[in-house]
């Protein structure tokens, strides 16, 4: 588990090394955002996508957006590491839900030839971080991608898909725009994310108001991801989890950072207003139940990482059922045969 510490009003992430302007690609802006309220007929309408767009745009307009980028930059760097683990280059790649470009800044032009960066928030696209890779900014919804079939060699997505109403459709769209033998690498928040905040708010609201409403958005379960990827058409799947724990001075600093990240709750069934006494009680519960020795409080972010490939004839395939020449029973005798051989020597 990685532990980060957020020092209130004093913490600043050091600026990334500058990239000469001559190395930057031309940025063009296209639009593929779905009209407000549109969704596929089968979608479960959990999130207010128009509100999420406004939240992300508000966060991108803040005077110091980098003050809140620490978590997204960390996960973006881990996605980039997984790209480097694949021993090939990608002439054309797509970053879906790119924000301010937290993945592209960790990649180089030898690995990715050209990057399309897509997001629903136009202000994030206008303030993307510098990278040496030529990029094109595209205003687009994750569920309604404005790209042709078999376009990209690589699709990446970092901390965006957990706000999608129709995740199966989004994964199908990603599979559709990938070329055969293309790969998708994604990261999204998991079900244990911010459990400390969730528990504190529920306990305080139940005690003060006689019941509670959801204040942290629902997340996908890890056992469902493999099934959803397979149903979308991906093969050679890998799904793993990780946790990042960040320490804050208190609950209110955590909530301010979530707002600055554009990660405030946008579920339709959220409660619009919490009473001041309930919030103070929740902060007290948070400190009482989870306080660290130094007086800070932890917040846990569970991250699901997923990798899936689009089928191609050149990919390795499992052998046909019944084609094995050695049984599992015979494999169990290997140790005894090896020990006998050692004794004879």
UniProtKB/TrEMBL annotation:
Single GO cellular component term: mitochondrion
Protein's name in the database: Arginine-hydroxylase NDUFAF5, mitochondrial
Residues annotated as domain Methyltransferase type: 94-185
Coiled coil location: none
Broad class of the protein's primary localization: mitochondrion
Oligomeric and partner information: Interacts with NDUFAF8, leading to stabilize NDUFAF5. Interacts with NDUFS7. Interacts with PYURF (via TRM112 domain); the interaction is direct and stabilizes NDUFAF5 protein.
Biological process per Gene Ontology, one example term: mitochondrial respiratory chain complex I assembly
């Amino acid at each position: 588990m990685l532990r980060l510490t957020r020092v209130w009003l004093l913490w600043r992430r050091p600026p990334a090394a500058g990239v000469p302007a001559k190395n930057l690609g031309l940025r063009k802006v296209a639009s593929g955002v779905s009209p407000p309220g549109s969704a596929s007929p089968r979608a479960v309408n959990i999130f207010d996508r128009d509100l999420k767009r406004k939240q992300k745009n508000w966060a991108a307009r803040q005077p110091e957006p980098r003050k809140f980028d620490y978590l997204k930059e960390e996960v973006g760097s881990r996605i980039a590491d997984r790209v480097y683990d694949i021993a090939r280059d990608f002439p054309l790649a797509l970053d879906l839900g790119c924000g301010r470009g937290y993945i592209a800044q960790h990649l180089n032009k030898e690995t990715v030839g050209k990057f399309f960066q897509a997001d629903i928030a136009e202000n994030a696209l206008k303030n993307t971080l510098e990278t040496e890779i030529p990029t094109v900014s595209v205003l687009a919804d994750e569920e309604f991608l404005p790209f042709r079939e078999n376009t990209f060699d690589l699709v990446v997505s970092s901390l965006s898909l957990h706000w999608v109403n129709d995740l199966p459709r989004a994964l199908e769209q990603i599979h559709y725009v990938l070329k055969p033998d293309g790969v998708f690498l994604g990261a999204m928040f998991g079900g244990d994310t911010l459990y400390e905040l969730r528990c504190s708010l529920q306990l305080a609201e139940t005690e003060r108001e006689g019941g509670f409403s959801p204040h942290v958005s629902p997340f996908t379960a890890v056992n469902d991801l493999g099934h959803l990827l397979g149903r979308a058409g991906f093969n050679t799947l890998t799904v793993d989890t990780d946790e990042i724990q960040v320490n804050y001075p208190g609950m209110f600093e955590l909530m301010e950072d979530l707002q600055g990240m554009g990660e405030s709750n946008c579920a339709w069934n959220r409660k619009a207003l919490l009473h001041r006494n309930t919030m103070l009680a929740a902060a007290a519960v948070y400190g009482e139940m989870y306080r660290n020795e130094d007086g800070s409080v932890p917040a846990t972010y569970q991250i699901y990482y997923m990798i899936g490939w689009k089928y191609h004839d050149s990919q390795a395939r499992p052998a046909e059922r019944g084609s094995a020449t050695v049984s599992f029973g015979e494999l169990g005798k290997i140790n005894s045969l090896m020990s006998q051989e050692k004794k004879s020597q």
